[in-house]
Design a protein that fits this description.
Layout: E1 2-4, E2 17-20, H1 24-36, E3 44-48, H2 55-59, E4 68-69, H3 74-78, E5 81-83, H4 85-94, H5 97-105, E6 111-113, E7 118-121, H6 127-139, E8 144-148, E9 154-158, E10 161-165, E11 170-173, E12 175-178, H7 193-200, E13 209-211, E14 215-217, H8 221-224, E15 229-235, E16 238-244, E17 249-250, H9 252-260, E18 272-277, H10 284-297, H11 303-307, H12 313-323, H13 337-350, E19 351-358, E20 365-367, E21 388-390, E22 398-399, H14 404-426
The structure holds flavin-adenine dinucleotide (FAD).
Length: about 425
């Protein structure tokens, strides 16, 4: 018997595993066990507080579910993980983004890789991803019981076994797998329960912070220019699209940056000043030669009109008003070289922004989690408690947007599944 949390009774032949669920990591763990231990005598019980599986998948990737990444180069792939790259690399060695894609395609979900390396179902329908698993559960229905709408309130260890308590019942189990996710989008069921379970069984939890979220800025102009997007802007070493919205600095670049500084407290009394480059490919020399040429070719053209050659007009007007109002109505022939150089430098790297807050509840993932020092990266089994496994976002592993979060879930879920198959074999 097996919970998801894989309910297993080690009496005679049947083994129980509990998986506390039930989205990405838990589903992959259960499916991997089911498909790789047809011979064994066991039963899986899956607990999910929601009345159906994969609530987060249906909203992920805007409903299209960015399942994984098309990046195959290991070094580049691991560079997308801001925490836990060293820990998760072993799992990616066994369940790479390519293997992940092949897994879904062999389970009836054809995939496509878009120009920015994000991999989606060809149908652009995230529910197909969940169905790949419900089909596996239907195929092995004699070995799996789904407890939808039943949440796990406690997990305790009694001698060599575990007791998992829900409002309905207290279940016995030989093996427990915790895949409860983080705290992000808690209305989808991810309310950080796994951290409490892990702590109660002797594990340590790192600090927990929101990650992959938007920022509030002190500068009002980011909101005045709501709707404006720069296809490739730069903040520190990150170059991605950025979006200005009514209230927030958003888009992939803001999300990536939020991951890099996830563990930094930012608020009105402790703001963070950063520098934005609206056009990451335009370095100071390029800006200066562009201005020089424009000034020479258009001695009667105002600076705002010149900058609008490269930048959205609204931004050009704002830039001149905010950073060089003294030359707003000056013709290029009268603009001093020092002013031209200052404009080039500002546009290259010095547009200051003051981040005063992250957008509450907007984060896609929780940075931090169960300390990976206490988990075996080869098996995802706890080094503190035997037959206790962790997978997915509950672990202290996270990264950028682009399918990297789900890739953690698929790979760690797969490793858990394989490890339990070996576990059952050796029983
Ligand atoms: C809006 C949004 C869009 C996203 N888009 C993408 C994307 O396109 N690509 C990508 O890679 N990542 C994306 N992510 C991140 C990704 O969805 C998560 O990292 C991933 O879902 C984590 O999976 P998990 O299995 O670890 O946990 P979760 O998906 O958080 O699932 C945990 C499950 O456990 C259940 N549960 C929790 N506690 C209990 C309990 N006590 N008893 C019973 N059940 C319990 C919850 O109900 C939930 O179903 C997105 C996140 C959000 C919020």
């Amino acid at each position: 018997m097996l919970f998801v949390f894989l309910l297993i009774i080690i009496s005679q032949s049947v083994k129980t595993t509990t998986i506390i669920w039930a989205w990405a990591a838990g589903l992959m763990a259960a499916a991997t066990i089911l498909e790789n231990s047809k011979w064994a005598d066991y039963h899986i019980q899956i607990f999910e507080k929601n009345t159906s599986p994969g609530k987060k998948v249906i909203i992920s990737g805007g409903g299209r579910c960015n399942v994984t990444t098309g990046i195959e180069d290991k070094k580049i792939l691991l560079s997308k993980y801001t925490r836990g790259a060293d820990f998760i690399k072993k799992a990616f060695g066994k369940f790479s983004p390519r293997k992940c894609r092949e897994w879904f395609e062999s389970h009836g979900v054809p995939m496509k890789c878009e120009s920015d390396n994000r991999v989606f179902p060809i149908s652009d329908d995230g529910t197909e991803v969940v169905e790949a698993f419900t089909h596996v559960f239907a195929k092995y229905r004699d070995k799996v019981t789904l407890h939808y709408g039943e949440w796990v309130s406690e997990v305790i260890k009694i001698d060599t076994r575990y007791q998992i308590t829900t409002p309905k019942w207290a279940y016995e189990s030989d093996i427990v797998v915790v895949t409860t996710g983080g705290n992000a989008y808690s209305h989808t069921g991810s309310t950080g329960d796994g951290y409490a379970f892990a702590r109660s069984i002797g594990h340590s939890i790192t600090q927990l912070w929101p990650s992959l979220s938007s920022f509030l800025t002190r500068e009002k102009w980011t909101h005045e220019l709501s709707g404006l997007a720069f296809e490739k802007a730069r903040i520190e070493n990150l170059e991605w699209p950025i979006l200005l919205t009514h209230f927030w600095l958003s888009g992939p670049l803001a999300f990536m940056y939020s991951s890099q500084i996830a563990w930094e407290a930012i608020n009105k009394t402790n703001p963070k000043t950063i520098q934005l480059s609206p056009l990451a490919d335009m370095w100071v020399a390029e800006w200066d030669s562009f201005l020089k040429l424009e000034f020479a070719n258009h001695p009667k053209k105002l600076i705002t009109n010149i900058l609008s050659e490269k930048l959205p007009r609204r931004f050009a007007e704002l830039f001149v008003r905010e950073y060089c109002p003294h030359i707003e109505t000056t013709y290029p022939v009268s603009i001093a070289r020092i002013d031209r150089a200052k404009i080039a430098e500002l546009l290259w790297i010095w547009i200051p922004l003051t981040l005063t807050d992250r957008r509450p509840g907007d984060e896609f993932v929780t940075a931090g989690g169960v300390s990976t020092d206490e988990i075996d990266p080869e098996t995802m089994e706890s080094k503190i408690q035997k037959n206790l496994y962790f997978a997915g976002e509950v672990l202290n592993v996270d990264g950028y947007t682009g399918g990297f979060s789900l890739q953690i879930c698929w790979a760690s879920g797969y490793i858990v599944g394989r490890s339990i198959v070996e576990n059952i074999k050796s029983a």
